Amino acid sequence: MAKRVVLLGGGVGGTMVANQLARQMKSEIVAGDIEVTVINESETHVYQPYFLYMAFDQAVPFDAKRPERSVLHHLVKLEVGNAQAVDRDHSAVVMEDGREIPYDYLVIATGSRPAPETVPGLLDGGHMFYTEESALKLRDALHQFQGGRIVVTVGVPHKCPVAPVEFTLMVRDWLNNRGLESSEVLYTYPIGRLHSLEPVAVWASSIFEERNIQSRTFFNAETVDPEKKVITSLEGESVPYDLLVAIPPHMGQDIIGRSKLGDAGNWIATNRHSLQMEGADNIYVLGDATNLPISKAGSTAHFEADVVAGNLINRLRGGLGSIRYNGKVFCFIEAGSDEATYVQFDYLNPPKPQAPSELIHLYKLAFNKMYWLSAAGIL
């Protein structure tokens, strides 16, 4: 009987692992010894970083979508539908329609979801850019904005850790380019600096001062009053706004909770080096779904996918799967004014933001275009 590898989630992590398995184990799959299946709730693969650009009308939904089938290697099976639970006792993924998809190895790449409902009033009183729908609503709100105060408030945890800084710098640039220089941009962060990564916080503090961006720390959003247009923090501070943009707290997907695989936030306890679920030798976890203290970013899933695929291939061919993940992350940071920078770090080496430049911005735009080749395993 074929060894069955099931990938739960067809985003960047699940797709890359599946494609690496298909390309490197082609002969075993063709011979019927290995079977690779991706379970995805949609027929569409979405490149989520484009949502930030949609908010400024620099991208449209068409740019961010491809059929998942077109991104997957032809030897990978695709199951489209809602997975209800992981049944570890019977090594199967249970689908909404009652079908069970058995596995010998399971890769959980379910990602995360924004949870604005955890802040009362935020859904009605604020905007975000973490879904296509919300990014387009924010785009419309920005184009109707006539001036005043834009408040950017950050909840934790959240995916793409530099996105709050990116949006803040881009919206300052957007206002300046439209003759709204007198409008105030206020950035709030929940801890005592402007970012969880101290080198990024130091860099952001300098560039915020240069760009005339206000900031407040130790601000944890508690409630939003949509009628009065006021956001209040757990610390007791109330801030009025004309336009509120939130980076809401995120949670792991509900299937993790239903399957009793994770903690209260639906994050799965994961070995930081092997990327195996703690206590589960045949389950790997990558991307946002883990509880690892590293950035929830696409590049994280990309680098983790190399480790997971490498270990699966090794084990399926009789090895022990000893490749280790070192915590590597690489993130571009849009800085407005057609400039960008980047950070690269791992478990042992902190990031060192570089001076923004137009060249790095062009690299970022080029990477967005080439993403589809990367996901398909061509690059």
Description:
The protein is an alpha/beta fold and 379 residues long. It folds into two domains: 3-111 and 253-328, FAD/NAD(P)-binding domain (3-Layer(bba) Sandwich); 114-249, FAD/NAD(P)-binding domain. Helix content is 30%, strand content 24%. α1 (12-24) packs parallel to α10. The mean pLDDT is 94.
Query: What is the distance, rounded to the nearest whole angstrom, between the alpha carbons of the first and last residues?
Result: 33 Å
The whole-angstrom Rg is: 21 Å
- Structural class computed from helices and strand pairing: alpha/beta
The pLDDT mean sits at 94
| Name of the top-level CATH class of the largest domain | Alpha Beta
Structural descriptors:
four-stranded parallel beta sheet, 24% strand, FAD/NAD(P)-binding domain, 21 strands, alpha/beta, five-stranded parallel beta sheet, 379 residues
Short description:
With 379 residues, the chain is an alpha/beta fold. Helix content is 30%, strand content 24%.
Blueprint (SSEs and pairs):
Elements: E1 3-8, H1 12-24, H2 26-30, E2 34-40, E3 44-46, H3 50-54, E4 65-67, H4 68-71, E5 77-80, E6 83-87, E7 92-95, E8 100-102, E9 105-108, E10 112-114, H5 122-125, H6 132-144, E11 149-154, H7 163-177, E12 184-188, H8 198-210, E13 214-216, E14 221-225, E15 230-233, E16 238-240, E17 243-247, E18 250-252, H9 254-258, E19 283-285, H10 298-316, E20 329-334, E21 340-345, H11 358-375
Parallel strand pairs: 1-2, 1-9, 2-5, 9-19, 11-12, 11-17, 12-13
Antiparallel strand pairs: 3-4, 6-7, 7-8, 10-18, 14-15, 15-16, 20-21
Helix pairs in contact: 1-10
